[in-house]
Amino acid sequence: MTRLITELAQLDALFDRHAERFGRDQTPYRNHVYRVINLVAAQRAPAGELPDEELGKLELAGFFHDAGIWLACTFDYLGPSARLACHYLQEQGLQSWSDEIHAMIVHHHKITPSEHEPASLVEAFRRADWIDLSLGLVRFGVPRERIREINRRFPNAGFHQLLLTLSARQLLTQPWRPLPMIRL
């Protein structure tokens, strides 16, 4: 098995930059992001390492995919998260990555496969998020032992409880839109 991805400079710098906004949710969300990135790697490069450009895209899509919850203060966060990512990409001179990262973010809660190629980074990211969200019940071919290894290195730290709390709040305040981020 390949070694886990445990440190990504740009990702960690973004978490440091926004630490105050994430507050006590930073560790649960950071661990979720690292789990997702490692689950993408388990699908795309099970016997080796991801290419640098893919890893760079994963760092940014990973950080921003749910970040709208904290940085835009909304549970309807797909659009705001994608906009934040595209703005950051423009600031960094990485506009050529915008379409793919935007797609990774807006499709990551899609229940059915996206219209992108099954082997695309967009699909691998969508599947990885579902693996983590389902606590490994849905695996998309990722070996159970790899999921356990990722979870041991990056524990849940209350992430799923946080999602349940946010979902309950959304249900109480907007019962007609209980899970606005889910897509068919």
Please tell me about this protein's structure.
The structure is a single chain. The chain has ten helices and no strands. The protein has 184 residues and is mostly helical. The protein has one domain (9-173). Helix 1 (9-17) runs parallel beside helix 4. The protein starts with 8 loop residues before the first helix and ends in an 11-residue tail after the last helix. The model has no long low-confidence stretch (mean pLDDT 95).
Order of helices and strands: HHHHHHHHHH
Q: What shape does the CA trace take?
A: globular
Cα end-to-end separation:
34 Å
Domain unit count: 1
The overall pLDDT, averaged over residues, is: 95
Percent helix among the residues? 55-70%
| Percentage of β-strand residues | under 5%
Structural class: mainly alpha
Largest sheet: none
- What's the count of strands? 0
The count of helical stretches stands at: 10
Low-pLDDT sequence parts: none
Radius of gyration, whole Å: 15 Å
